[in-house]
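Quality-control log, excerpt.
Job 1 of 2 completed; input and output follow.
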Amino acid sequence: MSFRNSRALVALAIASMAMTACGGAGMTSIPAGQPLMGNAQHLLDSGGVMPADSTSILKKLTKDVTIGSTVDPKNGDKGPRAISVVEGNNGKLKKNQILVCNFEDSKGNAGQGTTIEQFSPTPNSKPTTFVQNSKIAGCDGTAITSGEQIYAAGMTSKLMVWINQSGQVKKTYGKPITMPIADAETPQLYLYSPIYVYAGNGDTGTVDTLSLGGYGTNKVTEVINGFPVNKGSGWSAQGPSGFAYWCGALPGEQRCKNRADTMYLADGDCNAIVSIDHASSLLVKDEITVGAGCKTFKCKYPTTTCGKLVKAGSPLNKPFAATILPNGNMVVANTGNNTLVELMPSGKVLATKVIDKSKTPGIWGLFAIGTTDNNTEIYYTDTNSDELHELEQ
């Protein structure tokens, strides 16, 4: 029996259990032995065409609004990094509120921040402490899955931590996670499909995935290796980060609209952006190995999922954070010169924008909101001012 077929049978067994638990509603039977090939095969191969919108959103964003200081009101943590936006009302969280990780403690020690701040999406908002916990030390990622479950990455704690809607730590995930410098989540691709959380490690150049819900395994698997890292610590660490996922789902939507299933990653050490097709089909250890300069990819199952170089070199300058716009294009934050770069999936550069003239790296978090080219806005964090900002049209 082929490996792919054996994976199909395992998935079928889990799907059968899901049918029993859920009464089988909406489930489709799959002939035994039919290759499942991850989510990609479930969704077939048609309709996954990436968009081609050459409209520059970045050029439209001429107004810079300060949402508020990110300094924690209780312990003084600062150094804002990752951003997430709440999709619905649940527990302490309200729809459209913003969560921001603090990477430093009150004395400015990098990697010692242990708080996530909660903001209203209006100018001059005051931060409130959503959670403070040593298990998220060096907080640099706040992925929010459906149901407003938060998965925070702690670079110093070496953990990814599940935090519920009330700010309570529920579970921690360690090895193969070793030094997470960013994380991201994906919506559901289809009914009962898992929700995936990805983490990039700044010490090993690997990417791990955690599959949750549906017929997910609730286990962490190291699915990509070979990304270059600079072996830096604190703010200087560069490696696989800048996760940005595209499947047509707009902010607030928990189900994908197309079959693109594409994950983008920025790596500041190789100064490049790469894409992973059918990212949620990554199921086993080391399915993709990234070659020198992030320019080549060795893939175990290239007909299912593989990597591709989107853009390398100028105007990229130590890219760290990234976000997908509603039209499918992306914006990347350079930490080397505090400049935003807007690109199409083809790698064509549409615009650049300097948002902090300081020579000190300051832009580490991005998050786009909106539904059309005309109402898209972007949140960003600036560690030089310890503030959360919004770029508006």
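Job 2 of 2 completed; input and output follow.
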Amino acid sequence: MEKHVEALKDAAVRPVWHDPDVMPEPLAPLTTDETCELLIVGGGFTGLWAAMQAKERKPDVDIVLIEQTFIGDGASGRNGGFLSSTLAHTETNTEHRFPDEAERLEELGIQNMREFLETLERYNIDARYEKTGEMYVALDPESAERLHAKYQEAKAAGDDVVWFDKDAVREQVNSETFFAGMWERGGQDGVIDPARLCWGLRDVLVNQLGVRIFEGTKLLGVEPVGKEAMRANCENGVIHSDKVLLATNAYTSTIGRIRRSVIPVWDYQIATEPLTDEQLDRISWGKTSRHALADYVNMFHYFRLTRDNRITWGGGGAVRYYFNNGIDDKFMDATARFEQLALEFFEMFPQLDDVKFSHQWGGIIATSTRFCMVPGVAYDGRLAWSVGYTGHGVGASRFGARIGIELLGYEPSDVLKMQFVTRKSLPWAPEPLRWFGVKFTQKALIKADKNGGKRGLWLKFLDMLGLGFTC
């Protein structure tokens, strides 16, 4: 048996954040009809932050939140826990799509991050936050050159960035594949335990703020009742409300505009067993620095240390879109994807050849054609949504939740007048064009990575249409 396959043989098929000894007891499902002012559908980051912010703005608002499985089960409990202040999927994408609002979006992102962390402190939520900044590593001379140009631009703009040449970056994290690195150490970007964040928010909402949360409650459909109310039909009851926020992200929505706005892209991760001090010494990681890392390519890997010194490793070429918006649970257990990730892990860190993997899992990223959140509103302001964070939702989902509740009338601000909110996102093409387009684009991105980042004709064509992956 090959080394990378052997290292995976005992790995549990579940997120490293979902071990049974840390999972909270589930809350009871809906069993009777309910009435409330605000119904929130979805127990991930967006739904939980929406309930929190609605309560902060209107303490007496009566809120019901329903979740089909359990709080933190979807993308919010299956990501890598990288916390970033960006609201529009990196500075590059922001300047490309919203050039007139780039500065404002940066300010709002910083404000959002500050309020995010203040909430954790105020309610004593231990999400295992670490301020690590963001570190990009170049894997070839051409990428190193492009990354250095990015560094020079950031330095000229006054950003707090550090450059590492080949020798210096390997002193930070030792891999023979690293040619250079750039550390963005300013601000409050870092890493968290995403599931503990969800569960911490859940406990505060239920035990301190009086929000009624029903887990194990499936929404069958939502519809307007007259001109002032909404009705949500669930498997075991009906919820009557004044307003509804749909926070279901990539999961199939009953609203056509949401379904056409995002596609579900599967991402996969693996996690090692806790590394010993001796193993950490081999890669010079975890003692003097605890960088959160990503390689500087289109099909990038993202990898970090957990509180107990495991390495989580995800992304790269293991990302998949399945025909016709496949979201079935069967896609979570993907042996070939996990083996690919393990092989790539050992290619980057061959000195960790004795490391075993304890966890392997999949999760869905809701991807929009503009590579950042897509808000919307319907039924005369009675139903709203924020979806499509495209892999950058750990921090941005709090801002998406803010937009959602403001669209529903909870202390709306001038943010709602920004193009970021008002500009419509291009819908995805119907099948089979969608599947062919995603597959062809993925192959083009991989080819560009192998060619020093040079974008071929297809990617240049997408750039011209405003559909190119520019981050």
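Post-run check on job 2. The chain has three domains: 3-15+130-191+263-368, 17-82+194-262+371-422, 433-465.
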